[in-house]
Structures are given as C-alpha cells and as structure tokens.
Amino acid sequence: MLTLIEKEILDLKQKHNALILAHYYEDSAIQNIADFVGDSLFLAQKGSESNCDVVLLAGVLFMAESVKILSPKKTVLIPDMNAGCSLVNESPFSEYKKWKNSFPNSVMVTYVNSSAEVKSISDVVCTSSNVEKIIQSIPKDKKILFGPDKHLGRWVKKITGRDMEFWNGSCQVHILFSAQRLFEMKQEHPDALVIAHPECDDGVLSQSDIIGSTSKLLETVQKGKHKKYIVATEDGILYQMKKSRPDVELIQAPSNSSCACNQCPFMKMNTLEKIRDALKRLNPCIEISPDVLQKAQIPLQRMMKISRNETVVWN
Ligand code: 13P
Ligand code: SF4
User: Whose CA is nearest to atom 8 of ligand 2?
Assistant: First the structure.
C-alpha cells in the first residue's frame, strides 16, 4: 500500500506528465518511487529519450544538467539545487579552460561529473561505464587531457596505454576507502570478490577483482557465482544488490575512519518531501544559458554516439 507522500508524488507525476529518475546512490524510498533507477549514463539516456514534459532527476546537479542539455525543451527538476559533487567543485571553469589552452593539440575528455560550462569547452564527455570506449575512439596520435577525476583517468590510462594528462580532482566519497584496511579485510574474507568503482584510488583498485560503473557492479552481484562481495562504492547501491541477491553476503569496503564516509552527502540531500515539493512547484528547475547549452551539446552528443557504436568526426 502506498504511503500518503508516495500517493501525492504519483498524483503530481500524472498531472504534469512527469518522469522520475533516481540514481543508485539515493535512499531506497526514493529508488522505490522512481520510473527508472540507474547509473549516470542510463539516466541521461532515459531522460532525453522520454516523451514526458517534465523530468525529475533524484540525483545530483550535473546529472539533471545532462538531461537538460540533451533535451532543452523539457522542464528538468532536481529536488535540491545544492546537491552538487566534489568533482564539480574542484574543476572551476576558468582554471579548467587555462589547462586546456596550455595543450593546444590535444583532445579534452571530460567526465560527466562536471559543470555545464566545463562540458561546453570539452571535446567529448564520458561516464564510468563508457570511459574505455570513449578513449579508444580517439585517434591514436592525439594527446588526451582527462578531467576532473584523476583516479578514473589513471585507471583508464592503465588499460588503454594512451598518452594522457590529468586534472587533479577526486570524489570525496570514493577516496576515503582505505587500501590498508581493505588488505586486512581480504585476509579475513579470502572467499569474497572485491568490486570497486573506478573513482577509488589506485591502492584500492589494485586489490579489486572487478572495477566498473555502478551498473556494472550491480550486474556483477546479480549474475555472479560468489557468495560474498566486498563493495567499494557508495552504500545506496547495496539496496538493489540485496533486493536481487538476498542469498549473498555484502560487506562494505572499509574507510579510513569510523565515519559514514561511504555515503555521498550530495546524493543524500534528496528526500521524498523535496521530490513532492519540486513536482508541486515545478521548481527547482534547471536553467542553462543558451550559449553554454548549445556548446555542451556537442561533447555530450558525441559521447552518446560513441556509446551507440556510431562513427564520430574529430576536428
Ligand atoms: P556512475 O556513472 O557509475 O553511476 O557514477 C556516478 C557517480 O557519481 C559515482 O560517484
Ligand atoms: Fe560526486 Fe562522489 Fe557524490 Fe559521485 S559520490 S556525486 S563523484 S561526490
């Protein structure tokens, strides 16, 4: 049976012909009322493909901006405008632009966890689920500038062997997993498979069996033969993992201290009450200046094309 607030949200959704999208890091109550739950690439695809007039993105600001950039005519809502991301905060536009200008003949690949302005000066965008494919699609003689996440960048450089420079940014949640404590945990649970998001640092990634986006980590648990998993990513994902595999043991990877470090404070700003209020007021609503939006469409659409195995032109 629906609770009062769930009913209010469903009524408002119908009234405004709205689609609700939630990231895996949201609370289970939010994941339960969403039309689709997924990783950042999937949410951008679902938001832009939909023929709804309104898209509410229960995630962080850059995810809602991606939907708006790909489908500017839609009203795109976010429950809390302050739901940012440390990677966005650590890549201010003017500094990022200076960096780009200091490597004139390179290709700039920007992680989707970035501002619309930063995307607007990038050659192509990537997410953690398509980063390898995007890097492989770039002509081999080109130097690659990769930002803002240096850990994701270093990981993909290791796999592809490409000539890459990194912006010095990181995810404040994923860098707190402790390599030393993970090593000790692995001794205690030698039968566990370690699965990690590539935003973790190399000390954690080098001890991991599977590295990938939130969707890939979920799929690993859903389809895996193991009975035990050590999970190095934000704890919201555990909800879908437990739901589809109640028979397996899920252990959260240890962090450097006893805080709830593996919770993203930005993702957790969203609540059912804020979702209801946003749908009632059609606000907070994503606004991007037409110039930035038009320029940011080019690298985002390029990413979508490469993801669909279509050929892109590099100039
Ligand atoms: P995914 O694209 O894997 O969902 O990751 C988004 C994110 O912000 C991870 O911290
Ligand atoms: Fe940003 Fe990290 Fe939160 Fe993902 S988990 S939204 S990268 S701060």
Answer: 85
